[in-house]
Every structure is written in C-alpha cells, then in structure tokens.
Amino acid sequence: MSGTRILVVDDELQIVRALQMKLKSEGYEVETAGSAAEALAAAAARPPAAIILDVLLPDGHGTEVCRELRQWLSAPILVLSAVGDENEKIAALDAGADDYVTKPFSVDELLARLRAALRRTSPSREAVLEIGALRVDLERRLVMMDGRPVSLTPTEYDLLRLLARNEGKLLTHPAILREVWGPAYREESNYLHVYVSQLRRKLEPDPARPRYLLTVASVGYRLVDPLAAS
Amino acid sequence: MRSLPLRIDLAGVAASVLAVALVTGAVFALRPLAPVLSLGVLYVFAVLPAAAGWGLAYALVVSLVSLLIFNFFFLPPVHTLALSDPENWVALTVYLVTAVVVSELAARSRRRAAEVEQQRREFAFAADVSGLLLECRFVQDRLRPIGARLAEVLGVPRAHIEIGSLRRPEPAERAYDLAVADRHLGRLFLSSHAAPDPAVTGRVLQTLSSLLASATERERLAHAALVAEGLRQSDEIKTAVLRTLSHDLRSPLTAIGAASEVLDGGAESLTQAERAELVTTVRLQTRRLTRLVSNLLDLSRLEAGAARPRPELWTVDGLLAGALEAIGPDAERISVVLPAESPTLHVDSAQIERVLVNLLENALKVSSPTDVVEISTEAGPLELVLKIADHGPGLERGELERIFEPFERGGLSPGAGTGLGLAIARGFVRANGGRIWAESRPGRGATFALALPVARSRAPERGARPETREPPPGRDRVATDPAR
Questions:
Q1: Does domain B312-453 have CATH number 3.30.565.10?
Q2: β-bridge mates for residue B190, sequence order
Q3: ipTM above 0.85, yes or no
Q4: Does the B230-303 domain belong in CATH 1.10.287.130?
Q5: Most confident range, picked from B49-63, B297-311, B362-376, B397-411
Q6: Which chain B residues are closer than 8 Å to A106 by Cβ?
C-alpha cells in the first residue's frame, strides 16, 4: 500500500486531520484540500490513486467536482455526505463517484470501501471471478456457490455478472437497468427488485439475510465478499 | 303592472280634478260656437293625462266623473243627472267607450315604458355589480356598494347582503335566499316595510346570485392557489432546514467519531502531538454539538411560546459584563463604550445575555482576528439602543431582514455556524419587549442593533427591597437552564 496517494477533500479541518492520521498509519500518502478549487488544482498537479470527497464544499458542490474530475481522471472517488439524502447519493454516483458514505461514518468502514475501490481500478481480466464462496466463470457462463453449480436465467446471469465485475461497488438502480435491460428501462426499478430477490434465493445461504447481494436503500445494490467486509 | 292596484296619489287626484275643471270650463266657454253635444269629446283631454300619468284605474274614474259632470252641466235637463233625449244616451255611450279605449291604450304604452325603464335599470344593475365583483379581490369588500345598488333597483330604502349566512331575519327584516342551483350563497335582508315587486325581485336576485356565485368561486380558487403556493414554499423551507440541520448534526458527530476511532485504533502509530490534537477535536466538536442542541431547544421553546422571560431589574453594564465573561478570551477583541448614566432595564438577564453572546460571537466570527468589534450604547427616555458593529463583509440590503430567519447564514459557509443564533436572538429580544434589527455598510461591516425598553421604576435606594443586582461572579450564563 505504501506510496498510494489519497486526496482527502473536506472543509471540516478536524475531520480531514483525523482521516489523514488514520490513512498515514495505514501506509497511504495523504494530500488534503479544503475547497473545490483546491481539490481540482491538487488532483491536476499530481493525480491521486483515489479521492475522498465531501459533497458540501464552501465554493461548490462535490457532485460538480466529481463531474469535472471524471473528464480526465479515472481514479476512484468516494463521496462523503452529511446530508444523507437519496437524491444526492444518486446524483453523486451519476456524476461518476464510485461509492458514497454518509456522515457520521466508521473510519474502518471507509477504509474498507477505499480498499475495495482501489482493487477495482486494476480490473482483473481473469475469466473466473471469485467472491467469497461465489464463483462466476465468465467464459463458460457458469456460476458456482460453495462448489455447487447454480442455474440462472440469462437475465439473472447478466445481472450477476455486472455486480460481480464491480465487486464492492455501489451500483445505482438506473445504472444497473441501463446495463442489463437497456436504456429504455431506466425507470423500471421494479424489474430489478424482482430479479435481485430471485438471485438471492439461488445464491444466498439465507435469502432473508443477504450477505453477498446487499441493498443500499433507495439507491442501488452492491455485491460484496462477506468475509472481506468483516 | 305596478299602477293597477289603485293607490291614492294626491298629485294624481289634484291633477285629474284640475283637468276635469279646465275641460268643463272650456266646454262652457265654447258652447255658443258649437253644438254642446259635440263638445263632450273635449273630456278626452282630461282622461288622457290621467291614463298616461297614473294608469287605467284613474282614467276610468276620470272618464266616469267627466261624463257625470258633462251630463249635469250641459245635457238637458240641465243640472240633473237625468237624460231626456235618447240621442244624448248614444252620444254619452260613445264618449265613455272612447275614453276607456283611449285610457287603455295610454295605460298600455305607459306600462310598456315603465317595463323598458325597469329592464334598463336591471341591466345597469347587472353591469354595475359584475363590474364591482370583477375588479375586487374579496367579495366581502363589495357587498356594501352592491347592497346600495340593489336597494335602488328594487326601490327599497336599504338592502343588506350576507355571504354564507343562514341567519334568521330579525322582526323588522325580511330574508331572501341567494342561491344558484343547489348551492346556497347567502341571504339578502330587506326591511319588512319595503314591498318590492316580486317579479322584479325574482329576476334581480337571480342575476345577483349567479354573479356572486362566480365571484365567490373565483375567490375560492384564488385562495386555494395561494394556499397551495404557501404549502409548496413551506415544504421547500422544511427541506432546506432538514438538510442544514442534518449537515450541522452529522459534521461534529463525524469529527468526534473519526477522532475517537483513530485514537482507539492506532495509538502506537500516533505522535504525542497528534493524540493531543484528536482529543482537542473531540472536546471542541462536542462543544459545537452541545451548542447546536441547546440552540435548537431554545428555538423550539421560543416557537412553542415556552421561553417566557422572568424579568428583573438589570443595568446594561451588568448584562454586558455577563456576556463578555461567557465569550471568554475572544472578548479581548471587543471594545465597549458604556452610556454616561446606565438606565435600568426590566429584562430576563439570562435571555438578554444569550442575545448579546450570539450577536458578539457572530461579529467576532465575520471579523478578521485583528479587527475590533465595537459596542456602543444610546440611552433614550423610553429605550436603550445597544449597537454591535463588526468589520466583516457586511450584509446585502435583501439580507437585513432574512438574516434573522432560522438556518439563514447570510452567505457564510456551512461550517461557520448553525444559522440559529440570530433567530434565537430575535425571539428572546421580542419576548422581552424589545426590537432587534441589522444595519449594513456594505464592504465595511454590519451593525446589529438592539432596543430594550427602559424600566419605568428606578432601582430603589438602600433600605428598600433590593431588586437590582449584579450578576453573581462565575455563573455560567450561556448554559440553558433545562428547567425553564
């Protein structure tokens, strides 16, 4: 991890300082910014490996910064928000943020999300994805759970493949619908909810208490490795 | 039709008597020039004006009287009502029929004219009422002029309209319902002595009802639109308040949570200075959160009307001393000019000191650390005006009022404050009978002014019941008493 540079953007200096200390102790290199302008300047001067970005900045909105950065930067962006409003989450994710954390957050959880985001930036071109006990063989379109083959319909398979390729990443409803069903289905969240529960019945050991396919209320879904998350 | 029921009209009687007398005189005068029988036709000139002016009934009476007089004075045997010659019978019958026919024709044209006139009046009434209702915002405001016009068109002394009323008429009143289809609009009250023509009343009330119905409907729709707009705006305000509040509560919680987690997890990797910094963060952010919570509680108490002041006699010196003490080391940057003679104020010291602390903290926050915040006082006979001037960016004209609204930060960044301090200050000042306002010198700073009523009674001299007292030293004057 050493040498991985993280840009932390927040106008609350004391939050920035606490995160800076924690990240440093984990071996990251940390740069900080207190405003949208500083953030853009810092990212342009030395592109960081990942950005932790507060949504509400004194000189602008984090969503705008996100959109701006996405023009030329592919590093993962984790958005922090103190408002906790679903529309804001969706707007930030639509603007290109990779994940979204609501204040107050656990620093450990933030770091886990950061690690997952950084892992995704070096996407494995492997033909087989392994997430906990779940195995997705992309070449042969085969899915195994705990070594047992799982039979999926084509749509279920497409949905699982999208989630598995973005392991740990929060995917919004519109984004999933667009990828799996096509652009005409952007608003049809109901389809998605039905397919997710079908997938859970086939994959999850206890479908009522999902550990792989997690719901992020009103925003989207995330496929995680239950062992890595804890 | 109003003329048919015979009403004794003195003018009509006098005119008829005069006309009959004149014609009788003329017949008498012309008797040598023409056969007397043919002169009888002159009585038509007495009957016609009666028919045209007062109606058929009058005309008939005048005809009959004319015939009797003609017979009495001119037809043999003269000076009796008997007739000797059958020829005269025929003549008299012809005169009578002619008079009645002419009368009826005249009365008819008179009725026509009256009807046309009444219609014209009713049209004019409808036009006036719709004009009055069209250009008004509240129907209620126009009921008086409409009532006046209605009285005129109905020919009654007074007409009183009550919208939405189902009131029973008083003994001297008669009530008419104003309704359209099944919708009751209100009632019209007339004096019970007035007897308007029922046909006219029916027509006029129908016109009036439909005009009032459309006007009240328009008013209801306008009101509904206004209410809907108000709700939309209040929704927007609520959303904005919730977002701000959410941010203000979560930010310090995040800082406290993050700092304590870092302290807990990686104590060995932190330097002594870093540990100290994190501990300070926890302490400062806890204070920020505490202040926000007590601000919110104060504001809700104020809005619920539960922050009733407990006024005592205080001097402005004592109140300022308490506020400056509560502010702590930053109070060094505040310069105070006290009035030569300090008037006594009858206020709740905890609330007014809270107001002063909020205003002073704001002033310190917007000024650069080298700037001085100035407090000046002007003692008048009725109130004491206390001004707090800063050297910050000042306020825009439009912000001077708005700045006192809750969660309004006047362009300051969210981290700078809760946006509650001035709202609370205004609430406390008003509760204590004072006024608060902002003045601005754009680019050179803002001034917040506070006017507090001067107590009428002076503090009594020693020996009397002691009421004025200096604040006890060391008392925490910012913390809110939870029991209040």
A1: yes
A2: B159, B174
A3: no
A4: yes
A5: B362-376
A6: 257, 261
